[in-house]
Amino acid sequence: MDYEQIQLGLTVNRSLTKKLSVGISYQFVEETASQLSLNYTANIVSLNFTYQF
């Protein structure tokens, strides 16, 4: 089975303090397969917090 996948993403991070940072990410995924029922598109948004000890 043949398929094609496209992925694009963007992440932005910002320090809130010396030890705490926050980030937001967006990812777009599109997959096209030779079998139409397997095609899909995904939009994924993530919010991340990082704390350094």
Describe the structure.
This protein has 53 residues and is mostly beta strands. The chain has one domain (3-51). 0% of the residues lie in helices and 74% in strands. The chain has strands at 3-15, 20-33, 40-51.
Brief rundown of the structure:
With 53 residues, the chain is mainly beta. The chain contains no helices and 3 strands.
The biggest sheet, with number of strands, parallel, antiparallel or mixed sense and barrel status, is: 3 strands, antiparallel
Q: Spans of 5+ residues with little confidence (pLDDT < 50)?
A: none
The percentage of residues in β strands lies in over 45%
Question: What percent of the residues sit in helical stretches (DSSP H or I)?
Answer: under 10%
Terminal CA distance: 48 Å
The secondary-structure class comes to mainly beta
| Rg of Cα set | 17 Å
List keywords for this structure.
3-stranded antiparallel beta sheet; single chain; mainly beta
Secondary structure topology:
Blueprint: E1 3-15, E2 20-33, E3 40-51
Antiparallel strand pairs: 1-2, 2-3
